[in-house]
Known about the structure:
This protein is an alpha+beta fold. 27% of the residues lie in helices and 33% in strands. A seven-stranded antiparallel β-sheet has the order 1-7-6-5-4-3-2. The longest helix is centred in the last third of the chain and has 23 residues, at 130-152.
Amino acid sequence: MRRQADELETPKGDAPDFVYTIYIAADAEAVWNGLIDKELTEKYWGRHNVSDWKMGSKWEHVRADGSGIVDVHGHVLEVEPPHKLVVTWNGPEGSSTNEPYPSIVTYELFPLGPDTKLTVTHAKLNEGSVMHRGVTQGWQALMSNLKTLLETGKTLSDDQWGV
């Protein structure tokens, strides 16, 4: 039987870090809530980010369709509201997105007066894996959808942006 990697083990991925920066016309507190509040994540991500958001706590990315399916999970490594959140990231065991070791996602929020610079860094992915391909194609759409929601109160057209 394959040993499931401990979420707190040191990630070992060989892919270059994926870094995406976006500027949002909303204060850092609103952007922070957009990352952790399950009702907001449902609107732009179609999933709930569920945790108590304390260092060492588990977090889960749960489908909002009522199925209870967890698409991604991990642990909170660092939390400094509303400036920085670092989590491990892995697909569930047995899924095509499960990796031998988790990757790491860092959200950094930089207040710019009434606006916020948000940088997402996804590190320690395995080059060419299903998770790597999904991440490098998905973060731009997700963060653009968050930006649109926070700035306009609505999301991008689901049938057009494809995540």
